[in-house]
Amino acid sequence: MAIELKISEVKMSAEQSGKWGMVIDQDICTGCQACVAACAMENNISFVGEVDSGYGRSMHWIRIERFWEGEYPEVKMTANQPMLCQQCGHATCEPVCPAFATVHSQAEQLNLQVYNRCVGTRYCANNCPYQVRAFNWRDYKRPEPLSNQLNPDVTVRRVGVMEKCTFCIQRIHKAQDVAKSEGREVVDGEFTTACAQACPANAITFGRVDDPESLVSQLMKQSHGVKHLEELGTLPNVTYFKGG
Amino acid sequence: MSDNKHHAGHSHEEHLREKHLMLDPLPRGQMNDMVMESMLEKPTWKFWVVVGFLSFIVVYFLFFKWGVLIAKGQGEAGVMRPDYWGIFLVNTVFWIGISHAGTFISAILRVFRAEFRRPFTRAAELMTTFGLVQAGFSIFMHMGRVWLAYWLMPYPNQRMLWPNLHSPLTWDLLAITTYLLSSTMYLFLPLIPDVAMARDRSTGWRKTFYKTLALGFRGTEGEWTHLRNAMNIFAFAIIPVMFSVHTIVSWDFAAATRPGWSSTIFGPYFIVGALHSGMGAAVAVLAVIRGTMKHMKYFIRGEHFDAIGKLMLIISMAWAYFFFNDYMVQWYGGDKWTQQLLHFHEAGPMGWMWFAMLVCNIVIPWAILWNPKWRATPWLVATVGIIINFGMWFERYIIIPISVTINRMPFTWRLYKPGIEVPMGIGTLALFILLYMIASKLIPLIPVWEVQEGQMAHELKKFGRETVVSVSELE
Fold it and tell me: What is the Cα–Cα distance from B175 to A210, expressed in whole angstroms?
């Protein structure tokens, strides 16, 4: 009798099991890119421009991947796949940084990128199996009126540093501060990330994965949820629904 | 010679003298003067034209372009997602590879008492040091914020931030620094008797220069004993350093989670590759020295090219084994991304490079170096050496920018187009040649004392049908 071992059943330490997580329903994603725009606005992401963007230097913390199945003319488009940092519990980007610029946060259980510690070896991006890290190849100018809408809660990055999705850590902190001042815990659904907030189809759900009562935990229990490249042992914290 | 039976014995001896440097001794003073002359010979206008041209390339392509790169960011280079690493790292691995020949020739052949090494150990050691300088430049060019490079060093700071010892890049930095320091010391130790010789034969600023370098070496028995001991210790100690350096360089790739990179054979594969390109470069440098500098035809002869040619042939075979082993094992692993990548290597848009690599690294060396006559022809072996270096550069290009094109996220696949890396890479090559040209005028390129030692103490040993000049019982 073969022993079936699912990675989700392997006992993990609290550090690896994650705290914040996301569920993305590819079946209802329309590929409208509202999340991409909202993320760029929220997180002060540079405006790369046409030329560099066309050469694989587009700067997004979340991107909509589109794929086709079959050979022409029998081409079928598959579900859109929003791809962002999976906030791995056992991240491959972290150990390879020689300067400790990408580290695991003890408090939030997220992969942090310390911009002012980054020296730009780009090893983390190379070693990320999801290819979701974005490098500041140049100091890009923000055309008017984009230069007037910077979010004061988020650092503006400059040339030569790596950046990536933070699960809107500034929003997490704000919600925690408000809850603390009111002497309570953060309530599920009290706040969400910019991408989830902007999604018109409600395809993105964000919340605590270590709280079994939260919406995201409830959704994750559905049988058709998958985690990408789980076989690498990265322990990602984003679950995808497809063909449900 | 059979066609001249009358003088058979005599001409055989002549032939041996002509063939083997060890059997063709010259008086000590004469040999010293020859080396001094080769160094002090007034440079021709051609020398200055080449120096001027190389200086221009170094200033404009290396330093000015580097300034542009720093001012404008890595966007000036061809790197992007998914090719976060490009030609800068190709060049880093390439130059570290070149630097391996110096240690190999000088330390391993010294330890194994291969006598043919004697006249060109210094030329090879200089390649190590100058090659490592280019590797250092290349890796710093690659960094997004190079002005913060000192953060990779374990220096005391108030925030108690140290380099991450989990990162292969930190291992790399430590290994390359160790190698640079130890190979420079290893270059310096055997140089001491030669600069002392030069000190006694020069005047003016050169006298001061050699006096400083010679550390007061007078050639007493005690000094020689100390020097021999130190060189012996270094020769043995630097061999593991050399092996570890390129193994650790390979771990930058092998320790990563990428198809095509996470291969357990990368360590030895990279070392053999390094020796392959290093020997090729060494033989090219020797041919240039022999062709351009005075008296060098006495010191560097066909027998030396023949010996290095044999080594090149063996290393080429070893490289072929490791290449196909790496390829086979990865293919046999059956991972779908790796299979995509292996097909992309030979059938993708850069497939021509994959085939060119095999032709340069295997077909051409095997086709030419098997023949003893061809092997003893300096220009031919040097040409093969240069071709091998093209092949080995292709190999690194295939391992880095071509292999990272294919990853587990097909949405991001994209082919790398080099930008500012190309002129800057040419700049490192120019700096390498320039440093070498300057060194050839400043320090004795031939370790005279080693040649003299070999000529005094040689004996002939029979290995099978081959008679080999050897110095087995020197100490």
Answer: 43
Phi, psi of A134 (to 5 degrees): -120, 135
Mention the CATH class of domain A7-241: alpha beta
pLDDT digits 0-9 by tens, B59-115: 999 999 999 999 999 999 999 999 999 999 999 999 999 998 888 888 888 888 788
Interface probe for B, chosen from A96, A117, A132 (most Cβ of B below 10 Å), is A96
pTM of the shown model: 0.92
For B400-410, how does the pLDDT look when each residue is reduced to its tens digit (9 = 90+)?
999 999 999 99
Buried b (16+ CB within 10 A) or exposed e, A134-167: bbbbbebeeeeeeeeeeeeeeeebebbbbbbbbb
Residues of B in contact with A120 (CB under 8 A): 74, 143-146
CB atoms within 10 A of CB B158: 5
CA distance B438 to chain A (A): 33
Comparing alpha-carbon positions, the chain B residue that sits nearest to A134 is B81
Condensed to tens digits (0 to 9), the pLDDT of residues B255-304 reads 999 998 988 899 999 999 999 999 999 999 999 999 998 888 889 988 89
> Are A138 and B73 in contact (CB < 8 Å)?
yes
Average pLDDT for A158-183: 95
Q: Do A99 and B152 touch (CB under 8 A)?
A: yes
Does A31 touch chain B if contact means CB atoms closer than 8 Å? no
Rounded CA-CA distance B361/B315 in Å is: 10
Is B404 within 8 Å of A126 when comparing Cβ atoms?
yes
Interchain CB contact of A30 with B (< 8 Å):
no
As a CATH number, domain B27-470 is: 1.20.1630.10
Task: Say if residue B134's pLDDT is above 70.
Answer: yes
